[in-house]
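Task card 7
Instruction: Convert sequence to structure tokens.
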Amino acid sequence: MKRNSYVLIVVLLCLACAAWSDGIDVVVMVDISESMFPVFDDVVTYLLRDLLENRLHTGDSFHLLSFADTPEEEVRIDIEDRSDITDVIDRILLLKPLGQYTDLIAAVDFLYGYTRGIPEQNEKLILLLTDGIHDPPPGSPNRLDEADALARLLESSEKIKREGWDVHILRMPGTELAEVSPGQIGTGMDLLDQLSEQLESDVLAYEDVEKESLTDQLTGFSTLRFPDPLGRVRRRFSTSFAIQNNSSESQIYTMTDIESSAGGLLRRAVTVTIPAGQTAEINAPLRLARGIEAGKQSLDVTLAFADPQLRISPLQGTLTFEYVPLISWRIAWERFDLRRIPLPYLLYALAILILVGVIILLVFVIRHRMHEAAFDRLFAGVAETRKRRRSLRPLIMKVDSQNPNIGTRNIHPVPPGSRRSVGGDGSTFLIYYILMPRRIGHIRNDGKQYLFIPTRAEFFPDLSKPLADCLDKPIRAVSSRGREVVFHFHEYISPLEELNRLMRSVPKYHIGDVPLKHQTGEKSAAEHRGADLKGGGS
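Output:
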């Protein structure tokens, strides 16, 4: 009983862990020092707003941290109601990069402590946006020489690495090192490369990224592109969505639904596997709802995928097409009006119909005649074949002193151009009462006559060449032990045919006719009786 309880607890824990891992906590730490001013609006528009409006799902959380002289928390929101995002975006828009210093060590320490305090059920994605320059304000405990500053930074980043959090770094264009007095202690140190190496995170340069794809390339989230206008479609049609896998691993994408105001459009789930960094299309079979109006349509749809952890956008878009329904014969006939067609066109159409009818009739007659001729030729050939088969009787081989009551084992047809073997066991015509090898000779039909050809001359001392016209002729063979056997070939006549021949050979008499033999005897006896009567009377 205790063992079963342990198993149940383990199963429940596994299920709970699976349920907890559906969401993601995104922590963005952004540098708001003065060096970020030229690009800060792009960061807000193409990264922060894009994350909130398009990338995060219900169950996720978003955290915005800022650092310059000191690190601070700016925004914390759990994604439950999409209406809450508006207030958060307004708060972000008020954020301005006005800091005079950049304390990178304090920022990393604060990032670790803050992320450590977020509940653990979701995965963590950390985005660090900075120019990488460590320039703390005067009086800061992190205003150290380069070696001590690097050691302190690596100590803080090691804690983040041990947690196994996913960290992505975007290097922002900042102040040139030559302008920040590199000779002074604690100022103007570029520590970003050492930090990324410690965290085992690649550094993405802002100058190498297109603004519109900033979120995708920094986070590894997938990008979906809706199709161009589809043109004319029926109620059932297919369309393709382009998906770009921006992650470093191959991904499986399973589309499960396409929702619209008219209901679900996807006929069945579809799947595509896309290697890392590549783009492929997923072909979706769609079916429009009944009752949709014919003509041009712009249908707002929302896509759904099977994996709840899959980050792909945009999931909302518009399908543009022209719906052309199939028209039934009844509706087409109701819409058809002869009065709208000019008279010459009607006459042309009538003439074409008559011409087509004549051509079809001629083709039918010609094919019918050709079919009859081919039919006659075919059956003429069949009749000829049957006649030829009836004229060709099978042969029977009779062996002297051998029991003839062996069924049909020695009765075989020998068609023109063929031959049949003669000999012991394994031959077509069988000699079995004396031990003979197989195929010591064969009988052949050359189309004009039958020939017996000895293939092993030592068994036929009387034959030095083929025996022509061999039917009804005795053929002597001698076994290896000197025993003789004589056999003949005859045309086979079945017992039934022999009986029919016998019956046909009996003369036919009509009723009333008197057989000749009996008629002569009876007539003489009657005459004698008549004479005796006359004599007695006299």
